[in-house]
Structure formats: C-alpha cells, structure tokens
C-alpha cells in the first residue's frame, strides 16, 4: 500500500466551532510524517480523527473522507480500527496497577497477537528492546511502573503501543515532558521502526521534526499551510507563516 493514511476534505467541528478546515493529506507508508504547528492549531484533533477517538468528544462533527490502511474509517468498527493503531500521548500514562511486564503484555493479549506464554514473553521482550528500555528493566519486570523515571515510563508506553504490533503509530508530542537522553532514545527507536510501520508524530518542535521526519505538514489554525518532504519544508519553506513559525515567531 502506497499511503498508510489518506485524508480528503476533512472538516472537524467541536461545539459548532471549526477546528480543522479542509485538511488534505497523503501519508506514505513506512515513513515518519510529522504534523507540526503551534499550540491550539488542531494537531491532537487530527490524530484523534485517525483513530476515531474523536467519536468520544461530545458535540463533535466530522466531514470528509479518511482512509487508514486503505479502509474508510467510518466503514469499520472503531475497536477493530484501533487494533491496528498504536498511540503514545504527551504525558506518560502506563497503567499504574499493572507490572512493567503486564503493561506491555496487555495489548498483545487483547489483540490476540500471542498464542501462548512463550510468544507473549517474546513480544514483551521485543517491544521493550525496540523501545530501548529492555536493559533497564529486564531484571524488574514484575515491579510497578511508579518505580520508573518519567522518561522510562514514556518508553514503557511506547513498548505498550508496539506490543499491539500496529501498522500505524500515532505519537502526540511524545517527548514534550522528558529529558534529552530519553528523547534521543525514543527518536532512535522510531527511526528503527520505519521499515515495519508508519509513524505520524505531532510536535511543536521544528528541531525534533528536523531530526527524524521524512515528511512534514505545517498546521496553523486548523489548516494545512504547507506540506512536503521535510528538507523542503525546513530549508526552503514557501509560505510566510511556515517561515515565521520556523523562526519562532508564531
Ligand atoms: N474536547 C474539546 N472540547 C472543546 N474544544 C476542544 C476540545 N478538544 C480540542 N478543542 C479545541 O480545538 C482546538 C485545537 O485543539 P488541539 O488540542 O487539537 O490543538 P493542538 O495543536 O494539539 O494544541 P497543543 O499543541 O496545545 O496540544 C483548540 O481551540 C481547542 O480548544
């Protein structure tokens, strides 16, 4: 499949207010695609449309067409849709009452990607290794996540999302609250995953977009102002608003 996500003429309203305005995007498979833009521009809302978490927002209305992995998202059961989509939020939110192991194993169990204990162990190990956390937790898998640092907790959330074996990974400012070393580890993990899945990341940081993105879309007040290969957007932005944002003026 050429595009993991295709969005045509998307409008989103919440309580009658237009939050996204005629958004059109084609997200090539096996790339890191960054949605970049200032606070309140609609970045998180756009992610919530892709996995239909928008359905849970009261008085929200969606117009237009959204295809995920070739399927119209409104033609499939949202639970089935979300089985293929991992998500990591801005604030690390592991399940506090579950051990490190069970946090990761849960998704794999729910999705039926492991048939027995041995397979489950393998998926947990693979997920933690890919999230660059394995070495730090392999001897304490039965401990609660409260024993981990904030950055480790966020890598645990990444491992939890990976254990679903998703085809699409959505990340909403995944490193906004963590230190540079943990940020580096997460970015390395994401780069290593590109050959297996498609990653859509939201950030307000042009620096992060520069480091890891293949493509960037600049969102401003609900509209895609400019999109294209990341080098083109970062080095030679065509729109005045993009230029201003990159200089830190918006
Ligand atoms: N549940 C909601 N109810 C009402 N308004 C909402 C809701 N969620 C988002 N909005 C509004 O939609 C607009 C876009 O919000 P969104 O969170 O998508 O922006 P963002 O670019 O992700 O911002 P940030 O970078 O600050 O997270 C904002 O004006 C926000 O107030």
TrEMBL record:
InterPro entries: AAA+_ATPase, ABC_transporter-like_ATP-bd, ABC_transporter-like_CS, P-loop_NTPase, PstB-like
Gene Ontology CC annotation, any one: membrane
SMART domains, sorted: AAA (SM00382)
Superkingdom: Archaea
Domain ABC transporter per the UniProt entry, residue ranges: 5-246
PROSITE patterns named in the record: ABC_TRANSPORTER_1, ABC_TRANSPORTER_2
GO molecular function, one term: ATP binding
Entry's Gene Ontology BP terms: phosphate ion transmembrane transport
Name of this chain's protein: ABC transporter related protein
Organism annotation: Staphylothermus hellenicus (strain DSM 12710 / JCM 10830 / BK20S6-10-b1 / P8)
